[in-house]
Amino acid sequence: MTRLLLNLPELLYRFINHAVFCYSNLAGILPYLTFASEIDERRERGRSLLLLYSMNTDPQIKAIEQRITELISAEPELFLVEVKIKPTNNIKVYIDGDQGVSIEKLVSYNRKLYKQIEEEGMYPNGDFSLEVSSPGLDEPLKMHRQYQKNIGRFAEIIDKEGQKREGKLVGVDENEIIVEETKGKGKKQEVVTHTVPFEQIKSTKIQIKF
């Protein structure tokens, strides 16, 4: 008992030092924990805003898809690829054709669609802008008809595992595409054929080669 009492001051000293050390460490990491918490809150807020924006624009996208589809229905060689709406109410409509689509037709459809949107009051006070165009080379292929019209051209295909292939698009059916990739040079050159199912494709972009 006497020995325990004699060591009591030392035990208290060690306990106090340990408590101060723990508090010091906690104080050191507390700003980082607070900062990380703020980042998580901002990310969650951002996701919520994106979800809300997506829910708000989905009916508008569907309405515009319906109208542009009706406008181009008289020309069966044309087809709608995609409609995008930015938070600034910038509407982008991508139209393509089995044999391409002329600038004159794009301008005409832009005017007709703009008039419909304006007359129907889809955006109060005319608070929107509209661009009707054909997909550029920087836009990935999205429709089966786009793959078909680009047979014979070079393409870059990235699958869902991140593997990239470059070669000539030589075949397309309902489920897959066939790409010929040229490897090596001179006498060592060889052509390798790849069959890629659509379900494995992440993106396909057409390349211009001379």
Low-confidence parts, pLDDT < 50 over ≥5 residues?
A: 1-6, 18-24, 48-54
Structural class: alpha+beta
Total domain units:
2
Q: Please report which band the strand proportion falls in: under 5%, 5-15%, 15-25%, 25-35%, 35-45% or over 45%.
A: 25-35%
Helical percent range?
40-55%
> Helix tally?
3
Proper CATH architecture of the largest domain = 2-Layer Sandwich
Spatial gap, N to C terminus: 96 Å
CATH class of the largest domain: Alpha Beta
Care to count the β-strands?
8
The average pLDDT value, as a whole number, equals 81
Give me the strand/helix succession.
Answer: HEEHEHEEEEE
- Globular, elongated, flat, extended or rod-shaped: what is the shape? elongated
Radius of gyration: 30 Å
At the fourth level of CATH, the homologous superfamily of the largest domain is: K homology (KH) domain
Largest sheet: 5 strands, antiparallel
In the CATH hierarchy, the third-tier topology of the largest domain is known as: GMP Synthetase, Chain A, domain 3
User: How do the strands of the widest beta sheet line up side by side?
Assistant: 7-6-5-4-8
Question: Can you offer a commentary on this structure?
Answer:
45% of the residues lie in helices and 28% in strands. The protein has 210 residues and is α+β, with helices and mostly antiparallel strands. It folds into 2 domains: 51-133, K homology (KH) domain (GMP Synthetase, Chain A, domain 3); 144-207, SH3 type barrels. The strands form 2 sheets. A 5-stranded antiparallel β-sheet has the order 7-6-5-4-8. Strands 1-2-3 form a 3-stranded mixed β-sheet. The model is unreliable at 1-6, 18-24 and 48-54 (pLDDT under 50).
